[in-house]
Amino acid sequence: GSSQLLSKPQPLCFSQRTSFVAMATKRLSAATGDAVAKKLATDTASLAFPDGFLWGSATAAYQIEGAAFEGGRTPCIWDTFCATPGKVKNGDSGAVACDHYHRFREDVKLMKELGLPAYRFSISWSRLLPTGRGAPNPEAVEFYGQLLDELIANGIKPLATIYHWDLPQCLQDEYGGWLSRKVIDDFEHYAATCFALFGDRIKAWITFNEPWCSTVLGYANGEMAPGRKEAPDTEPYLAAHHIILSHARAVRRYRSEFQQKQAGQIGITLNMDWRQPLTASAEDGAAAQRALDWQLGWFADPIWKGDYPESMRKRCGDRLPTFTAEEKELVKGTSEFFGLNHYSTAYVAAPNGKAQTLSMWGNVQAGGYFDDQEVELIDDPRWGRSDMDWGVVPWGIKHMCEYIQREYNPQGGILVTENGCAVPDDDVTVAQNDNFRVEFYQGYIAQLHKAIQCGADVRAYFAWSLLDNFEWALGYSKRFGLVHVDYKTQKRTPKKSALVMSDICKTNVLRLPRHVLEASNFVMIEEGAGRKTTKDAPPSQKQQGAVEISPRSVGGLGA
Question: Active site includes 150?
Answer without folding.
Answer: no
